């Protein structure tokens, strides 16, 4: 279980890092999305793997240690929304840069060969 | 004289630095004395400059004959500076000497201190002597711009008063300055006032001997250096060091040469090296502590292998790698694979007992995909050129290097995640939230309670960021100029339009309408359903998975579906969304819900909750956090719709086609509706 998740996080990270190092803007935006999946999963995994753990609390407090860790979840919820916002912003910058610079290279100009 | 001020300020700092009550008193006393004699000396210098036209000590001499009163004043003040008995400078200097002898911490500096201060005092005597001797005595001055004479009375009076103060404080300290000094010292020291006495004569003490040595030494130094000083600019040895030049040199070296060297050797304007560096630094930063502390990959909480979860991640890994491969030439394929990887992530969240996160992930995934699809319209196709099969060596090398970095990063994070997941869980601060979510926040969904209550301020900041981003996207797109290749209508639309125009019974755009007819009908019917789901998610958020974010994005999806199915023109003829007002309302409501707590005397964003019995709906939580969540909801709807519609509107604009007089551009009409 942990191993599958760890391999998954690793694959998402590797693909993401590979893409953000590519020279084309679209590759970078996709790479950032993949990286954000990896990081979000990583953060939730920091609350330890608990399958089927209670998420909602009963009105009388039971054993808090059996509960799924809510803190990383709240953090990741925020991170998802923020990464949506940055993706949108980056997309528009990407489009504007493509229109202005006539190239989709990340530096706004083709590298000198 | 300015340099002597620096030396006296050094003396005061040293006294304060000795950190004894007596030292503080002496420091305060010397501040007062220094102010008195130095002010009168500066006034004397001003008088001399005014009357002779120069302040150059090498050109002045023999002024005694011309201005005896000024000369007397300056002499008394200089004597006070040198620490001659019967003047105020003597008293504080003696206290200073006494302190350097009394205070001990047995360091080398401490033992040398009495000798160092005696030496410093020697130089004080020497420069005071030089000032008096060179300016007022000797042959009559030659070649002065003006013939000197005594200044008018009013010009002399301030200096006279100050010198008088030097004298009477020096002669009778206990009668004059003691009460003032006492007040000042009490203000600094508070209750820790030591016993001290301001007296002229303490008997033959070491400090008196030090004073005598300094006087005699100063005289000697002056006599020895006199001829040198008359012929040279600046002091011996030290005079070769030019402070201004050093300052300039340091400034130029640091701010220009070093900066330029760093910029040329380490800096780059290119993004890729920067990101490579970033990835490298992140890797090393994670590796170092692990290397130091060790890492264990087998822990107590090992869980058995889950086949379905494993298969899920086979798909996930495949999609991630596929995305990486396809992102260059097949963007739509990459987008589909990215979406699938997102879905796998989402399912994993469900597996990891995080339903709230999974809900948010799936709706955000949806709008992100729509957003990127809309953006693809303006990104010209990149077609693989049938060039030489082998890339040049430099590019191959780049790829190998980047591949290694990516592999290392992936391996590193996977190892770290595996190790961390197997550590025993100590629950740290999460426990507090679980235990207090219901009693203090009034909700059973701990994640939501954290977002709208415990960490409400963060959420307020976050939705503000979202609003700012949405407005930035909108503003950037107003002046958007797409790539020239993207301006003509897409090929597919072109074919459809040609088909429509070829048939007399069809209108332009009919094919697109027909293709989407079923979908459009369904999406139209779904609109109220999605709306209800959104409100349901919003209301139950405090107790069950849901909340303002999810609900807001779900609502935005309802709007954007209509745009996709029927086209921008059709929707906006029937529906006025006005996203900016949604955003404004949301931000104000969230702020108001927080500020309402202040009215009742609680800190900002303190929430209040109760349960109300409503007909039909039953028990409904009416926490003030719900108001806050409605604000979040409204803002998220507005921001998401604004961004998506702003991109969608680009298709309505006509680029490079000049408008005729009186004709309104279609985009202007569209823009007004947004606001």
List strands and helices in order, with pairings:
The complex is a heterodimer of chains A (about 110) and B (about 675).
Chain A: H1 2-20, H2 25-45, H3 70-101
Chain B: H1 2-18, H2 21-52, H3 68-82, H4 88-102, H5 108-136, H6 153-171, H7 173-176, H8 178-189, H9 206-231, H10 243-265, H11 271-293, H12 307-326, H13 331-351, H14 355-376, H15 393-421, H16 430-441, H17 446-454, H18 456-478, H19 491-502, H20 510-515, H21 517-540, H22 548-566, H23 568-574, H24 579-599, E1 611-614, E2 618-621, H25 624-648, H26 666-674
Pfam families (chain A): Oxidored_q2
Keywords (chain A): Cell membrane, Membrane, Transmembrane, Transmembrane helix
Subcellular location (chain A): Cell membrane
Quickly count the helices of chain B: 26
The helix/strand class of chain B is: mainly alpha
Q: State the secondary-structure class of chain A.
A: mainly alpha
List the secondary-structure elements of chain B in sequence, H or E.
HHHHHHHHHHHHHHHHHHHHHHHHEEHH
Membrane topology (chain A): Multi-pass membrane protein
Main location (chain A): membrane
InterPro entries (chain A): CPA3_antiporter_subunitC, NUOK/Mnh_C1-like
Subcellular location (chain A): Cell membrane
